[in-house]
Amino acid sequence: MWRDLVFPDRATEGSAGYDFRVPYDIILEPGESALIPTGMRCQIEEGWVLMLFPRSSMGFKYRMQLDNGTGIVDGDYIFAENEGHIMAKITNDSREGKTMHLRAGDRFMQGVFVPYGVTVDDEPRGKRTGGLGSTGN
Fold it and tell me: Average of pLDDT values for 20-34?
């Protein structure tokens, strides 16, 4: 499965998002969810974050949602126990009874790199050790 992976890429020069692809076939009935390992890691420059969103076509066709709303990949996530493996949990929230058929290689999510700021009195006390949800509730 992993040998056929395609790195996320931008579809056009004007595209902000890098398209992520599913690594294997997935079928989701309305209301069903799946955790998708993308096989990707990303080293992110300090002061930047990778934000993950459903591709708009997936939202229009199936009301596909990322279960956490918007995925946030912090710069220190690459040092997590799971080595920064980017994963996405998606749900087919179709209210029209549409079954979602994703074939290996289909684009389902996009990642956008965004700069962020911090407050002048910012003093983080923790250090990342775990992966998803490891920095608190």
Answer: 96
